[in-house]
Hints:
Layout (H helix, E strand, L loop, with lengths): L2 H34 L5 H5 L2 E2 L4 E2 L2 H32 L4 H14 L3 H15 L6 H25 L3 H9 L4 H30 L2 H6 L19 H10 L6 H31 L4
Antiparallel strand pairs: 1-2
Helix pairs in contact: 1-11, 3-6, 3-8, 4-6, 5-6, 6-8, 7-8, 8-11, 10-11
Amino acid sequence: xxxxxxxxxAFSILFLCxxxxxxxxxxxxxxxxxxxxKGISWQFLxxxxxxxxxxxxxxxxIVGTLYLVSLSIVFSLPVGVMAxxxxxxxxxxxxxxxxxxxxxxxxxxxxxxxxxxxxLALFVTFMKFGxxxxxxxxxxxxxxxxxxxxASREALASVPYSFREVSLSLxxxxxxxxxxxxxxxxxxxxxxxxILSLARAAGExxxxxxxxxxFYLPNLPVSVFDQAMALPYHLYIISTxxxxxxxxxRYATAFVLVGIVFTMNIIAVILRSRLRxxxxx
Length: 281
């Protein structure tokens, strides 16, 4: 069999696998858009729920979701980037660091329910933060750390080692080299990982179920120690616990949640593309 024929067969198999993965996703998105777009309105997005959440809007759930993801990235991004810098630039390649890297990779695959139980035990009970935005944001931050650390390490490792050699040969310290010759070129990958972790946090239900989510709140939270409504948990509630609610309301809520996650992914792609264009290597 000729090489070109083998390549065509391989490409055909890869294309078929891609179609098998993409088509179900497009089908799900199509169903959500078809059934939910009609329920989207300014009133739906900016008013409080009413009539036992059968009427009104989802404004407090949107605000609560934005509070949670914003606060979680404030906690997780600095810690994750500093951990990645240490592991990639300072730590020696020995058994301990290899175990740490393996643990980080394994933590990225741990179920979100486990993180929710961990947050309940540590932040809600032990540290006595209670069921609050702070507990939920810290739990989401810990859940996001493996993704941010891994993405940041890959971004730092992609910077050519010659950049470091030139900087060190000019008399700069190790930290000055990292700050001025490595981090600026690793920022696109770091930001991409951070925004993708935000998108994951915005769609998680289990961690916030144990640490922050409320069934219904008549007012918006005013402190990080208050409970909050969140879109994933709100969608679960109206889909399973509220009788006689219109199917349009359920799909409209799902449409908003998918729209937020999709927007975050688009922002990540645009930022990465623009920042990479500034690279000169």
